[in-house]
Amino acid sequence: MDYYNSFLDQYLTSWYPTTTINPTSTISISSIDPTNTAGLALTFLNLQHQIQTETNSISLYYLSRNARGAAATYTILRIQQILQTAAATATQQLPQITEELVNATLNLKQLEWDSNLYAMNLSVPFNLLFGILFILIMFYQIGICAWFKDFYFSICMVCGCLLEFIGYIARTVAHYSYSDPNLYLCQIICLTIAPAFIMMSIYYLLAKLVVIHGLQYSILSPIQLSYIFIIFDVLSLVIQAIGGAIAAINLRMLRNSNVGSYIMLSGIAFQAFSMTVYILFLMDFLIRVFKIPNKSFQLFRFIRFLFGSNEMRQEFEISYNSKFRPIREKQIFNYMPLFIMISVLFVYVRCIYRVIELSQGWRGFLITHEEYVLTLDALMVLLCVLIYVLFHPGLIFNKMNIPLKKKKLKDIEMKNEVRSTPISQPYYSSRLRLPEKSTVSSTISSFDKSTIINSRFDSPSF
């Protein structure tokens, strides 16, 4: 045992209990099976070998924690052996023995708390509640997708809700296993990349609005808008996934995970940048749709327009694409620009929070206080997807084909033009009008009959 004491004195940092025990307080004293003594000796030998060869500071930190645990365990075993002897019952030795036993127990409890990867007690009710809500919304999106055949929007939303569900269920389970790195990485990666899928579905809606109102109201074509922002979102998703993978590998190998954290941070920052650009394009589109030519912009009228004023809609209806008028006549469609803006702002707040959170590190103030995670992340994303429970595009478009490519738009316009022609009237009649019978008769009667006869029988001149 003297060899182990010298080893611990050389490599183990000092630890002093921070908890003050008053005479009236009680504490559960740890008890260890004496048969573990042989295993403890082997642990000391392994620690000695690893500490002498290890150079990584993170690995040395974990090894020192193991050494602390071994030292506290050894202290408890030694005191248990002393208490088994008759000499230990001496009154003068009991205070010292009790103090050492309490300190060793507090040391083990502190080590157990230090192994908490979240540095807090995770809330089971709230995390479970968010997990249940996200899975219910996911099933709703699947049902809407099957009914209205709105595949792209619903599939992206389903992926986002599924990742949110996995993340919060992992946090719920982690309450009972807070030192499990698999659960920690599962929840942090899933909750980080989930909003990227949700934003993919929202980006698509701006292109649909451009087609429904008219191509002249957007700087870019609908297909260009879709490609640009979806590519932006995929890039941010890839960056975040790479950062999460690097952080996971480093964490498993007991290495510094700051590189992975910074990559994840840059991915979220890029996502916030793409959302900012999207909001600018959305605002430019809405102003173009609303603005009266040769008149200044009026904020109050614009707000009325966003809140679905029928009077405002009727005023501008004549300038919109007539092919999609049935969609615009739905009262729910009038609120579509407003709920798109609100949903984007919810995710935008969440992204700004995540940028600040990760910039503080894995032991920063925000990430170690769950009330901020639940309100500025979970609640923001939940409110975003709840909007599309009430205002799902399938309920608005109702299976109507809204193509984004110009060629398909022209094909639809030609089909609509053919269908709009009355069946009793030939298609060419709108372009070629034959003279009426009365007009022909009056024209013939105006000519002299002799002129007609002469024109028939006169020989032609060469």
Automatic annotation (TrEMBL):
Q: Which family does it belong to?
A: Belongs to the lipid-translocating exporter (LTE) (TC 9.A.26.1) family.
Query: Transmembrane stretches, by residue range?
Result: 117-139, 151-170, 182-206, 227-249, 261-287, 332-356, 376-397
Q: Name one GO biological process term.
A: lipid transport
Protein source organism:
Candida verbasci
What is one term from the GO cellular component aspect held by the record? fungal-type vacuole
Q: Name one Pfam family in it.
A: RTA1
Q: Which domain of life is it from?
A: Eukaryota
Tell me where in or outside the cell this protein is found. Cell membrane
Question: What is known about what this protein does?
Answer: Catalyzes the ATP-dependent translocation of sphingoid long-chain bases (LCBs) from the cytoplasmic site toward the extracytoplasmic side of the membrane (flip-flop). Involved in the establishment of the functional lipid asymmetry of the plasma membrane. Regulates intracellular levels of LCBs, sphingolipid precursors that are growth inhibitory at increased levels.
Keywords of this protein's UniProt record, alphabetized?
Lipid transport, Membrane, Transmembrane, Transmembrane helix, Transport
Q: How does it sit in the membrane?
A: Multi-pass membrane protein
InterPro entries, per database record: RTA1
Predominant cellular place of this UniProt entry's protein: membrane
Task: State what protein this is by name.
Answer: Sphingoid long-chain base transporter RSB1
